[in-house]
Specification:
about 200 residues, five-stranded antiparallel β-sheet
């Protein structure tokens, strides 16, 4: 019978829980066409909707050739990829008794979680700065962020929390390892030479 999480720390379990909840919010925000909104229209990474009719953002005449929008799509896609990989690594650690103490896997998951934060931050900053100017000019109305943009921002905070929890867990494991090695050295005592001069 396979048991989950038996040899992992509480900190890692909490980090994994935060990661899973954050990933759900992240995916909803990533896929929803509500990054920005106005009275009769809204946009997301992949769809633009006006008066209830939605088309692909790739087919939207207003967004074709907008490099800033393509940059947001790229960095947000990178965020989903790094987040997915981090979750897979944490699942491997949680379900594998051999890897429960693996430092390299935890380092990789921590780095990927921090990278997810960086990619999300880049995307929301570009969208807020360039999108506000662009959409106000195109639609001649005030720019307002939608719920998907807010979900992505909350997901960024969640990923940061998960990354910090993973880093603290890793630090605790390294400190425990260092103390164990130091105790082993202390109990071994000084090494004396048995050879005669």
């Amino acid at each position: 019978m396979v048991f989950c999480c038996g040899q992992t720390t509480v900190m890692l379990k909490v980090a994994a829980l935060v990661m899973f909840m954050t990933f759900v919010l992240h995916l909803i925000g990533f896929a929803s066409p509500f990054w920005s909104r106005r009275t009769n229209s809204n946009e997301g990474m992949w769809e633009v909707c006006q008066n209830g009719l939605c088309v692909s953002s790739l087919a939207s005449p207003a967004l074709i050739g907008q490099v800033w929008f393509q940059a947001v799509q790229i960095v947000e896609t990178m965020a989903v990829l790094t987040a997915s990989t981090a979750i897979i690594l944490v699942l491997v650690v949680l379900f594998s008794s051999k890897l429960a103490r693996s430092k390299s896997t935890l380092v990789a998951a921590t780095v990927l979680s921090f990278l997810t934060v960086v990619f999300i931050l880049m995307g929301i900053v570009i969208y807020a700065t360039k999108g506000s100017v662009f959409f106000e000019a195109v639609f001649a109305t005030d720019f307002a962020v939608g719920f998907a943009y807010i979900l992505i921002t909350v997901a960024m905070v969640g990923w940061l929390l998960a990354a910090v929890l993973l880093a603290v867990d890793l630090d605790q494991k390294l400190e425990t390892r260092r103390k164990t090695l130091q105790r082993a050295d202390d109990t071994a005592g000084p090494v004396t030479s048995t050879s005669e001069p």
